[in-house]
Amino acid sequence: IRTNLKSALDVILDTGNPVVQLIYHDQEAFSTKAVDAPLSLKSEPQLELGAGDVVVISGGAKGVTYRISRALAPFKARVVLLGRTELDPAAAYNTLRSLNDPAEKKTGRKSDRPQDDTSRDLAALDIARNVSRLSAMGLRASYHCCDVADPHSVTQTLDQVVKRYGRIDGIIHGAGLIRDAFMESMTPEDFKRVVEVKLLGAWNLFRASRNRGLRFFAGLSSIVAIQGNIGQVNYCAANRSFSALLRSFSASTEGLVSKALM
Q1: Counting CB atoms within 10 angstroms of each CB, which of 91, 142, 146, 178 has the fewest?
Q2: 195: closest CA among 162, 228, 163, 239?
Q3: What region, left, alpha or beta, does residue 33 occupy, with left being phi > 0 and alpha being psi -120 to 50 degrees?
Q4: Is the pLDDT at 248 greater than 60, yes or no?
Q5: What is the pLDDT of residues 148-159, one digit of tens each?
Q6: What are the residues whose beta carbons fall under 8 Å from the beta carbon of 238, sequence distance 6 or more?
Q7: d(CA 127, CA 60)
Q8: Is the pLDDT of residue 92 over 60?
Q9: CB neighbour list of residue 88: distance below 8 Å, 6 or more residues apart
Q10: Which pTM does this prediction carry?
Q11: DSSP 3-state of 29
């Protein structure tokens, strides 16, 4: 408002400026800043999680999403994990057998299966193990193959969840994709795909669950949304816009708690 556009653009497009985002208001420039401060947990939580609540978690069943699921065990929640890896127990088992075949190790003969297929099978095996571990902790855990960037896939999958459990209490959007490159060599597809998984994925999950009893929506964003990172302009943009989208969820939906974790 009342800001000279040319002078603002000169500052914003200055490649020597370390600030990621500048917001102009009445001729003044403002920027966001990360502050290191103790986390206060003295106040009562805005929502309660209990036995039977249904939590959908995107991002597969490995790494941080598996650890988040494990942390829900004391609450006895029903956890539905979404990921792009398709589970094929038979193929995964055969891959594992071939990798541990003494004859192959002795002769040094390599499997005829493409490396991508082997990696996918091992990832599927890891997911199956983790789902079993979650079940052993008392969680009613399940896994669905779902591309969150595909609205049809999300709608179809969450329809199945609601048909089985009757509702969806919470979403934790942890899915993400990294395709790092400098701007001069980054393709439009590399930019688009990274943003689609994080931003469009969040919208697809929200759209398909908002009328199904949704009470909270948490998102795993990134510190790069604030401070940037070399070669990650697509990832920075994805997480910044994703965080802004989550903030709009709370503002536009009564009773919904949403939070982006940087």
Answers
A1: 178
A2: 239
A3: beta
A4: yes
A5: 999 999 999 999
A6: 176, 194, 195, 197, 198, 199
A7: 7
A8: no
A9: 121, 124
A10: 0.79
A11: strand
